[in-house]
Amino acid sequence: MENALSTLLLSSNTVYDMVNGRISPALRDDGFPAITYQKTNTVIPTDISGQPTGNNQSQFSIVVHAKSYADARNIGNAIISLLNGFRGAAGDKTVKLTQFLGDGDGQQQDPDITQVYLTYNFIHN
Length: 125
Hints:
Elements: H1 2-11, H2 13-18, E1 23-24, E2 34-43, E3 56-66, H3 69-83, E4 88-90, E5 93-108, E6 113-124
Parallel strand pairs: 1-2
Antiparallel strand pairs: 2-3, 3-6, 4-5, 5-6
């Protein structure tokens, strides 16, 4: 699902332009603003015999890093607009449902960067 999320984020001209293409699965140090993401949980439903059934679920933390709160929040809102309710093809996955689970704010001291955290659950094949 990591490739699918990357495809979705990179496919939005608005989001891409807001961070000059700095979107990756790892912490960045090559400039701000930037977006990073990491998978925090995966559920693969199984029946009583251990055989996979139904759709997989992957939960991600998406973090916006920017030099001001206003910039971080604007980029976060663009991501929310892009992902909320998304269903369809994304990379090698078919996303059945995208669920926004919540957001939060933070501050990194060195360098002085504001962060907006977004948590999403993707139900997919």
